[in-house]
Amino acid sequence: MPPTDASTDASTDAGTARATRPDPGAAPGPASLADPGSDPSAGTDSEDTLDLRLPDELIALFAGDSGDGGDSEARDGTAGGDDLLDRVGGWGPTATPAGVFHLVPARTERDLPLITRWMNDPAVAAFWELAGSESVVEEHLRRQIDGDGRSVPCLGTLDGTPMSYWEIYRADLDPLARHYPARPHDTGIHLLIGGVANRGHGLGSTLLRAVADHVLEKRPSCARVVAEPDLRNTPSVSAFLSAGFRFSAEVDLPDKRAALMIRDRALRDLS
């Protein structure tokens, strides 16, 4: 759940996401956007159904699969072997109307100062609740980087320039799944647009659409990309709607009432 920017959504509410994801591999929820938006109450989806079969990955986790957990390259998918998110680090760049966009798994030794600066922006801090010293952000990143791979923190670069922070996570393996009818391999996204100059011009919507479609392209087993911005975060909800997500339902999470936003593989060419 991610943060928001005063003029144009800077991110999607993250503070609540932290409360929703207590386990070490879980990630908070941010998402940043810009465009003003429509009424999320329109088009509530009544067809989402609960699949009661546990995903194979979750069964493996309960069975205590994994010894040393592997190195950071294996966790973000830049090395060989399978992982819970089909190796985000190897997805490569994707073309967008705004330029060439690339998700690059975050590295604390390289990215911590930049992400910390973004998290201390008041418009972002209000939702992500990660303002403060580098140690605050480092702990947040480490929980994901050293986790089981169900959440991967990334820098988003546009034409080679870092300009956003993302978390790509397995929504079906996340505590969020307790609050909506999750399906196997549902993939969640959180977004924070870093620089103020990049907010308020529709860039958030452009990138959300591109990344959601990139997820669907690179994860054949994933039929839906989901997000859960705070219902009060109108710029964020609007940006998701502009990016081709549909408003599915209102969900009560531990620290907020959220808008469940979904981008379906089957409908992506129609929106």
What keyword list fits this structure?
alpha+beta; 8 helices; disordered N terminus; globular; eight-stranded mixed beta sheet; 271 residues
Would you kindly provide a written description of the structure presented here, covering whatever features stand out?
By secondary structure, the chain is α+β, with helices and mostly antiparallel strands. It contains eight helices and eight strands. The chain has helices at 15-20, 56-62, 72-76, 108-119, 122-128, 134-145, 203-218, 234-242, and strands spanning 94-96, 99-105, 151-158, 161-170, 187-193, 224-227, 246-253, 256-264. An eight-stranded mixed beta sheet has the order 1-2-3-4-5-6-8-7, with helices on both faces. Helix 4 (108-119) packs across helix 6 and helix 7 crosses helix 8. The longest helix is centred in the last third of the chain and has 16 residues, at 203-218. The radius of gyration is 17 Å and the shape is globular. The model is unreliable at 1-9, 13-28, 30-47 and 49-82 (pLDDT under 50).
